[in-house]
Description:
Shape: elongated
Helix content: 25-40%
Oligomer: single chain
Low-confidence stretches: 35-41
Largest sheet: 4 strands, antiparallel
Distance between the termini: 86 Å
Amino acid sequence: xxxxxxxxxxxxxxxxxxxVGIILAxxxxxxxxxxxxxxxxxxxxxxxxxxMIAEDxxxxxxALATKSKWAIDKMxxxxxxxxxxHARGGxxxxxxxxxxxxxxxxxxxxxxxxxxxxxxxxxxxxxKMRQEGFPEAxxxxxx
Length: 143
């Protein structure tokens, strides 16, 4: 009788270990695949992520459209770096004659909108970017 009970206890222990292992594996998979970023990748440049939520991406695009007087549906933007309050990236304007583009730098306002600080193809002013609070890691190419 004791040997039968011992076998049952060993089987219960091994099944319990299997169940715990499955639960841990599922938890790990869920943690690794739960990416809330709306950009295709979450890369870093100088330790600053390029991830940006959809609302902020739309707000930056709207600010660029307003400043440039281009139709929002004729623009493509990408984000190179985003701290949550400061962002930089590139913009391409597309029309029937081809495309043109350049860089953009934006600051998030307290009301959640974004303001374009600088855009174009020319020299990036270190003084202006520092005045706007951009981290040095976002402006290594300024002059």
